[in-house]
Write a structure and sequence with these properties.
The complex is a heterodimer of chains A (about 400) and B (about 325).
Chain A (H helix, E strand, L loop, with lengths): L1 H16 L1 H4 L3 E8 L9 H18 L7 E8 L5 H13 L5 E3 L3 H15 L3 E3 L6 H4 L6 E3 L4 H14 L4 E7 L2 H16 L3 E8 L7 H10 L3 E5 L5 H11 L6 E3 L7 H6 L7 E5 L4 H12 L9 H18 L4 H4 L2 H6 L4 E3 L4 H9 L4 E3 L7 E2 L3 E2 L3 E7 L2 E7 L1
Parallel strand pairs in A: 1-2, 1-3, 3-4, 4-5, 6-7, 6-8, 8-9, 9-10, 11-12
Antiparallel strand pairs in A: 10-15, 13-14, 15-16
Chain B lengths: L1 H38 L6 H22 L9 H29 L4 H23 L12 E3 L1 H8 L7 E2 H23 L1 H11 L1 H6 L4 H26 L4 H6 L1 H11 L4 H18 L4 H7 L18 H15 L11
Antiparallel strand pairs in B: 1-2
The chains are: A alpha/beta (about 400), B mainly alpha (about 325).
Subcellular location (chain B): Cell membrane
Membrane topology (chain B): Multi-pass membrane protein
Pfam families (chain B): BPD_transp_2 (PF02653)
Chain lengths: ~400, ~325
């Protein structure tokens, strides 16, 4: 026993002093998104975004001494805490040095509490936007490249005000994300002098939403804000409201922005509007261009944020010279924010070189990343309007 | 005018969806009640039998659509319905031969049958998910509306719109035809009479020479047809997802029990009672009240008795109340 202890101590010492030899040839990053479940139509392009950053770094050969980055995909089911935590455990067991994810706010909180904190693993979520995650105890291990919904509520209220909407009805999907977003929209809109006629929850995965729609219709309002998921209850509610003629314009927060919604609902959705995190930074265009070369849509929701999340991991690892979460975690905010040279998508190789030479960078990425508070994006938003069956960006906010 | 507006709003959000949902529940409850009356057990696999039938209908609807066959303004699913019924008949007959027959010969207690049907339910559950997957499937096509809310407003000049979906119209018409056929069969034909005799008193029926295996087989065939029709109508009107069909089991059983297990008439009444209470108790009456009540009495809040989250709780509550105070149900079925 004594021998074993000495041996362990010796190994720990040598690992600590000589980390240059400890740098691996292969860095594994987990990608933990809801490939099944309510946002399954968004997850593949999100994963492609993250993998784009990883392959860019691998090809540059500048990470450590030409290390390659291997993505490990795993599923959260978006609303399945059991599945998500089991898969997070699996990723750690497979040797992931960081986790890009989770995606939906509820499972992200569960992974953070049950897996990341006990294992000291760092998570950067591209899409978990619940205000609750801001105040959640995270030991400094949780970051997100998307702004909190508290901010989204303010943005939505100002869009509604600009469009001359006086009263709204709100329905939200019954989970952390929906509740948090609905609260923030309600408080921001009421603070701006608007009237909220009703706020009601809906459950995902039901066949029939006529009762929910009936209650919303009875309360009335200029438009119906649906803080739900586009492949789930959100779609059912909109379909039901259009069928009965209860509402004809809808407010669509980020969970409802995606190509499948206008396709499934059809021309009746034209004129509905909403917002999603996104920026008009140069980076967004560069990223979209690179994405379309690879055959995926770089403007799809949270794909750029996913790219940024993966890039932040790798840059922070380079800056600290280690793949150990407790070494690189302090560098994440450092590489994301000023001072330093601005880095756009496609310039990861350059950034790695600057860091290797001891320089400083200010990672802008595809979404103009700027981490504030407890490690979350300050955030800019795209205002979306559905025109001729397509989501069109009309303005940046 | 206000009264008309109130009535139209009520029809649009309560009466029409309620009647369509009630018809779907009634068809489902008829199947449950027939099994209970004749085979003497509560068949928990009924929801998944509906899912299986609907799944076959959906698969053939897609096949027909790919061939370019359609029913004009009506959904193509109606053409695929007979195939679905035949496939479901085959499934329940095989299940009966392989599983239920064994326990019938053992003269097993009803509670054993219930447990067995639970097992069958899980098997069918898995089968359906294995073939078509657990996700949402939409298979409605043809004209979506008989009358659209906007068109109705323009036609009548009222403030409130009235929408009737084609699927709702088809549901009600089909339900009336199916129920009429079923009652004619049970009351007028020899086979139907022998089924009722078997249900009333098994021993007497056997003594008078009724072949029990034949009665059982015919019951299963009718139940398969009812389940497939109910499932397809529900899927057309709402959407198809294996899990929602499993959940339908609760309101269907509530309907059958409220009406009186074993009584076909009760199943229909029960279906409408459950559907209407679910919709009415969770409806926000503010709008209707605003039209018909004098200004001083207008509701300030939503005038909603229960939030829509508690829809299923309504079926549960009615079920419990009926079992406590009138276990035989409205139409004097068998005591549970």
């Amino acid at each position: 026993m004594k021998k074993l202890l000495t041996a362990t101590a010796a190994i720990a010492l040598s690992a600590g002093t000589a980390f240059a030899e400890g740098q691996p040839k292969e860095v594994k990053l987990g990608i933990l998104f809801g490939f099944t479940g309510p946002i399954e139509s968004l997850a593949p392009t999100m994963a492609s975004g993250a993998e784009l950053a990883m392959s860019e770094v691998s090809e540059s050969g500048k990470l450590f001494d030409g290390a390659t980055v291997t993505p490990l995909r795993a599923d959260t089911g978006c609303i399945d805490n059991g599945l998500a935590t089991a898969n997070a455990e699996k990723l750690i067991a497979e040797g992931a040095s960081g986790i890009v994810g989770g995606d939906c706010s509820g499972v992200t909180g569960a992974i953070l509490q049950n897996v990341a904190i006990p294992n000291g693993m760092v998570m950067i979520s591209p899409s978990a936007s619940s205000p609750g995650l801001t105040s959640m105890e995270d030991n400094g291990l949780f970051f997100r490249t998307t702004p909190s919904d508290a901010r989204q509520g303010e943005i939505m209220a100002s869009i509604l005000a600009d469009r001359g909407v006086d009263s709204i009805a709100i329905t939200y999907t019954n989970n952390d994300y929906g509740k948090g977003l609905a609260d923030s929209i309600q408080s921001s809109f009421e603070a701006a002098g608007g009237e909220v006629t009703i706020v009601t929850a809906h459950e995902d995965g039901k066949g029939d939403y006529s009762a929910e729609v009936a209650a919303l219709a009875s309360a009335g309002g200029d438009i119906l804000v649906v803080a739900g998921y586009l492949d789930q209850g959100g779609l059912g509610i909109i379909q039901g409201a259009l069928d009965t003629g209860a509402f004809d314009t809808f407010g669509l927060p980020d969970g409802m922005i995606g190509d499948s919604l206008p396709t499934n609902v059809g021309s009746d959705l034209n004129g509905s509007f909403g917002q999603i995190a996104g920026s008009d930074s140069e980076g967004a265009e560069i990223f979209a261009g690179k994405a379309s070369e690879l055959g995926f849509d770089g403007t799809s929701a949270y794909s750029p944020e996913s790219y940024d999340a993966a890039a932040l991991f790798l840059l922070a690892m380079q800056a600290s010279g280690s793949v150990d979460p407790k070494d690189y975690v302090s560098k994440i905010t450092e590489v994301a924010n000023a001072p330093g040279e601005k880095i756009n998508p496609g310039e990861l190789g350059k950034a790695l070189e600057i860091l290797a030479n001891g320089g400083e960078i200010d990672y802008e990425g595809a979404t103009g990343v700027n981490l504030i508070g407890p490690g979350e994006s300050a955030g800019s938003f795209r205002e979306i309007e559905v025109q001729d069956g397509k989501n069109v960006t009309v303005k940046f906010r | 005018m206000d009264f008309l507006n109130a009535f139209v709003a009520l029809s649009n959000f309560v009466l029409i969806p309620g009647i369509a949902y009630g018809s779907q529940l009634a068809l489902g409850a008829l199947g449950v009640t027939l099994i209970y009356g004749i085979l003497r057990f509560s068949n928990f696999a009924h929801g998944d039998t509906m899912a299986f039938g609907t799944m076959v209908v959906i698969l053939f609807t897609w096949l027909f659509q790919s061939w370019g066959i359609s029913a004009g303004p009506l959904p193509t699913a109606l053409l695929a319905l007979p195939i679905g019924i035949v496939a479901t008949m085959a499934l329940v007959l095989v299940t009966d031969k392989a599983v239920f027959k064994f326990y019938r010969e053992q003269k097993a207690k009803p509670v054993v049958f219930v447990m067995v049907s639970l097992g069958v339910m899980f098997m069918m559950n898995g089968l359906v998910r294995f073939i078509i997957g657990p996700g949402d499937q939409r298979f409605g096509d043809g004209e979506r509306f008989i009358i659209k809310a906007g068109t109705f407003k323009k036609m009548t000049g009222l403030d409130e719109g009235l929408a009737i979906k084609t699927s709702q119209g088809i549901t009600v018409v089909t339900a009336i035809i199916v129920v009429a056929l079923l009652f004619w069969f049970l009351n007028k034909t020899r086979t139907g009479k022998s089924m009722r005799a078997y249900s009333d008193n098994e021993d007497l029926a056997l003594l008078s020479g009724i072949n029990p295996e034949r009665v059982v087989m015919i019951t299963w065939l009718i139940v398969a047809a009812l389940a497939t029709i109910a499932g397809t109508l529900y899927g057309l009107d709402k959407s198809f997802k294996p899990f929602t069909y499993f959940q339908l089991l609760l309101p269907i059983f509530a309907a059958a029990i409220v009406g009186g297990l074993g009584s076909p008439l009760g199943a229909i009444a029960g279906g409408f009672v459950i559907a209407m209470s679910e919709v009415m108790i969770t409806y926000a009456w503010k709008k209707v009240g605003g039209y018909i009540l004098p200004e001083s009495l207008e509701p300030e809040g939503l005038a909603q008795l229960l939030s829509t989250d508690y829809k299923f709780a309504v079926s549960f509550a009615i079920l419990v109340v009926v079992l406590l105070f009138k276990p035989t149900g409205i139409f004097k079925g068998k005591a549970v």
